[in-house]
């Protein structure tokens, strides 16, 4: 019998993660299509958002006469855990996929762009296919799971906030536009959003199962960080498109997205000025007291602050 070659060593954990999050054939070969991608039509988008609005309003009206909240048991905690894990997976997937796309396509645009400029400004003619758009598609689908947050909040007899419903609806709409028009800036937007969501919902799961929360408004600080990153990236896209690089793909969808983000920013600035410039009493309520249960302070902060990151 001849000498057999030694068996190859098993792949490392890093290699397995990289393969399943950025090199799997279903990820590399993904293509956004109205006929092949579930939920990819305009009719599905508008009907699902309309159904979400109808269910939210109907539940709010039906449960208003009840004096006691409905017992949900561990459902809110499990929902927070699921959103945290899903967000962390999307973050890791689009991070590895963006690195792989830069490695594989840099030869095409390296004379005119840096990797950061590619993340902010897709070249004109970019098609919604490949690794990063697979994770953008998964992020779009995850928006409908986030909508369940509103339903759980209503079932727990929290007041239905207009901005919470507005935020979830607009988030689903804008993430659809990212795919439909191959919008620039979406990779960084998804990276920042999923990183913050994984932290926020992980924190909510932590407090929901009985552990002590932070002595400061954790969710509020995450909202500020996410808004700051979005504003900086929008400024970068504006400069690259109109002054330096001669055009970014999907700029029409980006303009619409910028208008919506501007409305959110104005709402948040109004809150910040009202509380931190003129409202000493409200500032004390939002910051809470470490001698009390920090979850109570966090709950008051969420009720006072615009709901950019919805909680259970």
Quick gist of this model?
By secondary structure, the protein is mostly helical. It has helices spanning 13-23, 25-28, 42-63, 75-109, 115-120, 131-155, 162-180, 186-208, 218-244, 251-277, 280-287, 294-304. Helix 1 (13-23) crosses helix 4 (75-109), helix 4 (75-109) runs antiparallel to helix 8 and helix 7 packs antiparallel against helix 10.
Task: Describe this entry's structure for a reader.
With 312 residues, the chain is mainly alpha-helical. The protein has one domain (13-63, 71-288). Helix content is 70%, strand content 0%. The protein is built from twelve helices and no strands. It has helices spanning 13-23, 25-28, 42-63, 75-109, 115-120, 131-155, 162-180, 186-208, 218-244, 251-277, 280-287, 294-304. Residues 288-298 and 300-304 have low confidence and may be disordered.
Per the principal axes of the C-alpha atoms, what is the gross shape? globular
Largest sheet data: none
- What is the CA-atom radius of gyration, in angstroms? 22 Å
| Strand/helix succession | HHHHHHHHHHHH
Strand % is under 5%
Return the structural class: mainly alpha
**How much helix, percentage-wise, in residues?**
55-70%
Flag low-confidence runs.
Answer: 288-298, 300-304
Protein name: Elongation of fatty acids protein 3-like
Membrane topology: Multi-pass membrane protein
Pfam family, one: ELO
Keywords: Fatty acid biosynthesis, Fatty acid metabolism, Lipid biosynthesis, Lipid metabolism, Membrane, Transferase, Transmembrane, Transmembrane helix
